[in-house]
């Protein structure tokens, strides 16, 4: 692992998630931008001190010199570092799991995605919400025509944690997220809007035609947007509306997706992630529960416990790790991955996310509201 040391947020989620199914073991790392803190963290994790490195370059050199070298690296650092670290590991021949957004600039995302293709390495990108079984069930229901022709997609990711200027009060996570050089051009839209955009496309199967965006910064002095509204026109005529907000009081990771077709609609809400609400034309509504016998292969492959026992965020993240492991084994063994290793987020999804943010910021910066097409959809 690179990053994710003491006091960091997502690194610990990666470690919990990776360990859950026994497919991954944490054996080496450069855990902190401060080497001493990184080593102290590695010692607490019980790592071999020889495999706790000062920085990612030393880690690559050290691991390449070992017979029992790492299989893959998880990159859990702020956005602006993803490109250089991923590139170095890919070029050294390692598979990579990288946090979203893939990179801080579109130019870097394009180059990185090309490098993944040219190198033949695997690169997974942790779009968390595509790890949920009921999100896979929703995708399956759309793909098998159970909603009919898709007309509209409503997706939102509201948060309240940056509703005040916490970046000025020593909050490490908020500090780099509000610095355009470290975060990238999109504030809330890059941080959480990318999750919403991925989720909407993943479930609906729709590809974007164009978008028009309105970005706002409500907290005084903040350099990036903390609220975004984006109207989406999908290829084929469907419409979408995406809202991301870091200033939505009362909301805590309330990711919500609703997809409306001409036969039925679906609704999924991350605070009740074990349920999918399916409403058919004419008023019949059913709640589909995780673990039901007749769910799709993709949903079943991501389910660990019987219905009624709650599964959630950590299990969804574990599903990504289980999927990445299966995809890597399948690639090595030159076979098709089983269900858990299919429909997983990869470098191309990461590139699409960065292209989306870039188009959103360009659209919102234009003097007249404009409809723009991201460079990849
Ligand atoms: P954080 O500030 O809590 O942690 C960053 C960590 O990276 C720290 O330990 C820091 O010391 C380390 N670091 C920074 N530069 C480094 C370098 N060059 N080498 C080694 N370590 C370095 O950040 P966070 O909130 O955990 O976010 C990290 C990444 O995860 C971001 O890209 C963010 O967008 C993403 N994230 C994703 C999700 C998700 O749901 N998938 C959720 C939160 C964050």
Automatic annotation (TrEMBL):
Pfam families xrefs: GFO_IDH_MocA, GFO_IDH_MocA_C3
InterPro entries listed in its UniProt record: Gfo/Idh/MocA-like_OxRdtase_N, Gfo/Idh/MocA_oxidoreduct, GFO_IDH_MocA-like_dom, NAD(P)-bd_dom_sf
Domain GFO/IDH/MocA-like oxidoreductase: 136-266
Domain Gfo/Idh/MocA-like oxidoreductase N-terminal: 9-126
PANTHER family documented for this protein: CONSERVED EXPRESSED OXIDOREDUCTASE (EUROFUNG) (PTHR43708), OXIDOREDUCTASE (PTHR43708:SF3)
Name of the protein this chain belongs to: Gfo/Idh/MocA family protein
């Amino acid at each position: 692992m690179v990053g994710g040391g003491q006091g960091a947020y997502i690194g610990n989620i990666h470690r919990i998630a990776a360990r859950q199914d026994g497919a991954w073991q944490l054996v080496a790392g450069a855990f902190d931008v401060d080497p001493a803190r990184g080593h102290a963290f590695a010692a607490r994790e019980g790592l071999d001190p020889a495999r706790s490195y000062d920085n990612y370059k030393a880690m690559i050199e050290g691991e390449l010199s070992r017979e029992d070298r790492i299989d893959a690296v998880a990159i859990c650092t702020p956005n602006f570092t993803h490109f250089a670290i991923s590139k170095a590991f890919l070029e050294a021949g390692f598979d990579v799991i990288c946090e979203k957004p893939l990179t801080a600039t579109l130019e870097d995302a394009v180059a990185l995605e090309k490098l993944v293709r040219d190198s033949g390495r695997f690169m997974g990108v942790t779009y968390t919400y595509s790890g949920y079984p009921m999100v896979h069930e929703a995708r399956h229901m759309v793909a098998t025509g159970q909603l009919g022709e898709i007309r509209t997609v409503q997706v939102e990711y509201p948060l309240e944690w940056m509703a005040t200027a916490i970046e000025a009060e020593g909050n490490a996570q908020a500090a780099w997220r509000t610095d355009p050089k470290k975060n990238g051009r999109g504030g809330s839209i890059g941080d959480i809007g990318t999750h919403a955009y991925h989720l909407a496309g993943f479930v609906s199967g729709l590809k974007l035609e164009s978008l028009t965006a309105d970005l706002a910064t409500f907290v005084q002095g903040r350099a990036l947007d903390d609220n975004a509204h984006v109207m989406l026109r999908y290829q084929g005529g469907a419409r979408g509306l995406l809202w991301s907000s870091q200033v939505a009081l009362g909301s805590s990771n309330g990711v919500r997706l609703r997809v409306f077709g001409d036969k039925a609609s679906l609704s999924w809400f991350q605070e009740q992630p074990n349920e999918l609400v399916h409403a058919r034309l004419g008023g019949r509504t059913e709640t589909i529960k995780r673990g039901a016998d007749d769910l799709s292969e993709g949903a079943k492959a991501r389910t660990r416990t019987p219905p009624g026992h709650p599964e959630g965020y950590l299990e969804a993240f574990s599903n990504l790790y289980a999927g990445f492991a299966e995809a890597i084994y399948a690639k090595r063994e030159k076979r098709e991955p089983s269900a858990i290793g299919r429909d997983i987020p990869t470098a191309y999804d990461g590139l699409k996310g960065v292209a989306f943010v870039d188009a959103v910021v360009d659209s919102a910066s234009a003097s007249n509201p404009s409809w723009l097409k991201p460079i990849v959809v």
